[in-house]
């Protein structure tokens, strides 16, 4: 092999380890060495699980040698975000007061990944309360983007995306209530699919009370990868049922084969925000890639997501104010408290009767999109109208919050309606501060994450993986075996 083991994608790793061409112990050691080399500068992984990972790797090698069956992720090194329970480890959620909240058991997503044969090498950073599109907190510190300090790593799964793109594990677990998978994917040039409502079982055994209804209906668990094909390999393991989530939807990963060719809607609409020329070019590339892949792409005027997006985020802010507000005031830093004050100012929370009415209206918004997606099973949209922002932009008053979240209507609207949405890089922009990936979004029919990932694969086939130019920028050898 002419490239180091840490550069292999999850599909290749699974093939190599299941055939015993490379041992899980060798693969895990390579991922840990990469983590030790690059994480000190990035601070993406905030809990090192090297010893535990190596013990598991040896056990998996022994299982293979004894003829025991292997899972689809056999020997794949990955990371888990610190806001999800992993037995015996603190679910800090980026909050100093939670530093010693030790999980009594694994969350469903952790259990599913382990059952599939994955090896957890570390736990990744998140902002306080996992409620920023940037990643910094007083407990673990700031995560940096491997492309450079001029770009935020995104949030709230910023540690996961920075780690994956720097070569620290092939996959990174994350979650998304308003964009927390897609923001960091876009910031780092990674690929992800935000699953639809009910697709991935979710629950934290350490939680002392149930989450609010908006959190239950908008938040989902997922993975960040550097290769779109890795999502086809890994997502079926994530969606395996877990009885602890009573609202999980037990559907297979692959749905019925759609009519061919697949019709795809296309929009450049960014409403009250200017569309940057580089984002426009990224949209064009995504469109052309899907046309070349045999899809029929038509420009459309979609339902106005200003209404659904702002309704959803203001409803979420209403719930946050009541259910999270006391904890934020008691345990949050002055920075996060100031940010939430600005959130509440820019997205006035729905409360009382108004909150009940907007929750009822949610069905109307979802129905409009169901009708559109019946005609166009996929829709290409912008994700952000501008290239990704700089670190701490959301701390810079109303203008900062508007650039970070106000312009992200295409992000949180999909959470409110419970639709799957992928984020995939389709352009490497040459900007004044240096090269920067530009991701676009692909919205899919309900429970058709597989179609979204198919489209991501087609775009990646045309554009290439963004990790390759990143690793060249980092001074790495990226030659193929």
Terminal-residue CA separation: 5 Å
DSSP helical segment count:
17
The largest beta-sheet arranges its strands as 1-3-2-4-6-5-10-11-9-7-8
Shape: globular
Range of helix content:
40-55%
Task: Using the coordinates above, name the CATH class.
Answer: Alpha Beta
CATH overall fold name:
Amidase signature (AS) enzymes
Largest sheet: 11 strands, mixed
Q: How many runs of DSSP E, i.e. beta strands?
A: 11
**Mean of all residue-level pLDDT scores:** 97
Q: Any idea what the CATH superfamily is called?
A: Amidase signature (AS) domain
Secondary-structure element series: HHEHEHEHEHEHEHEHEHHHHEHHEEHH
Walkthrough of the structure:
This protein starts with 9 loop residues before the first helix and ends in an 8-residue tail after the last helix. By secondary structure, the protein is α/β, with parallel strands linked by helices. It contains 17 helices and eleven strands. It has an eleven-stranded mixed beta sheet, with helices on both faces. The protein is globular. It has a single domain, classed as Amidase signature (AS) domain (Amidase signature (AS) enzymes, Alpha-Beta Complex), CATH 3.90.1300.10. Helix 9 packs across helix 16.
